[in-house]
C-alpha cells in the first residue's frame, strides 16, 4: 500500500504540470495547449496456448490492469484507446470504466497520432498497445526513433509524451509493488 501511494505521489508530481502545460505555436498567435499521450503495453497475457493469437489476461494481468486504473485516477483522460485484441482491451477497460469512457479501437499501423493531437488539443489520452507498437507510437509523436521495442517480460512501461509545438517525452517503469524509475531519452 505504501509503495502504491508513493507511486501515485511520484506520478502526480511528475504530471502536475501536464494539466496546464501550454505552448505557443508559430502558426497561431494564441496559445495552444499541448496534448498529453500516455502509452502503455497490455498487461500480462495468458501464454498457456502458444497457438492462441488473441489471449486474455492472466490473473496477474488483471491485477495490473486495475493498478493502471489507480495510476490514472487523478489524470483527466478525454479518451482511452486499445488495439482490437482481448489483452489490450482488458488492460484499458478498468481505467475507461473509472473515467466513464468507452474504450475506442485503433489500428497502430494506420493511426496518425498527430491527427489525434489536433482532435484533442490540451487533453490527456491513454493508448494501450503492444511491445512493438507502444514505443513506435511514442517515436511517431516525437518524430524520431528514440524508443526500441519493449522486452517481452516488461509490462510496466509508461510512456508520457507531451505533443505540441514543443515535444517532451519520458518513460516510467511502474510495478505495482515497486517505486517507479524514470528514464528520459
Describe this structure in words.
The protein is built from 5 helices and 9 strands, in the order H-E-E-E-H-E-H-E-H-E-H-E-E-E. It is α/β, with parallel strands linked by helices. It has a single domain, classed as Phosphoglycerate mutase-like (Rossmann fold, 3-Layer(aba) Sandwich). The strands form 2 sheets. It has a 7-stranded mixed beta sheet with strand order 5-4-6-3-7-8-9, sandwiched between helices. A two-stranded antiparallel ribbon has the order 1-2. Helix 2 packs parallel to helix 3 (86-98). Mean pLDDT is 85; it is low at 1-10 and 13-29.
List keywords for this structure.
185 residues; alpha/beta; Rossmann fold; two-stranded antiparallel ribbon; 31% helix; 24% strand; disordered N terminus
Concise synopsis of the structure shown:
This protein is an alpha/beta fold. It has helices at 2-15, 59-71, 86-98, 113-119, 133-142; strands at residues 22-24, 31-33, 35-41, 77-82, 103-105, 124-129, 157-163, 168-173, 181-183. The protein has one domain: Phosphoglycerate mutase-like (Rossmann fold, 3-Layer(aba) Sandwich), CATH 3.40.50.1240.
Structural class: alpha/beta
CATH homolog superfamily: Phosphoglycerate mutase-like
**Cα distance, first to last residue?**
30 Å
Ranges where pLDDT stays below 50 over 5 or more residues in a row are: 1-10, 13-29
Count of domains: 1
What is the count of DSSP helices, taking H or I runs of 4+ residues? Answer: 5
* CATH fold title: Rossmann fold
State the total count of DSSP E strands: 9
Proportion of beta-strand residues: 15-25%
H and E string: HEEEHEHEHEHEEE
The first-level CATH class name: Alpha Beta
| Name given to the CATH architecture | 3-Layer(aba) Sandwich
Assembly level? single chain
Radius of gyration: 16 Å
Global outline: globular
Q: Share of helix among residues?
A: 25-40%
Let me know the largest β-sheet. Answer: 7 strands, mixed
Taking all residues together, what is the mean pLDDT?
Answer: 85
Across the major sheet, the strand order is 5-4-6-3-7-8-9
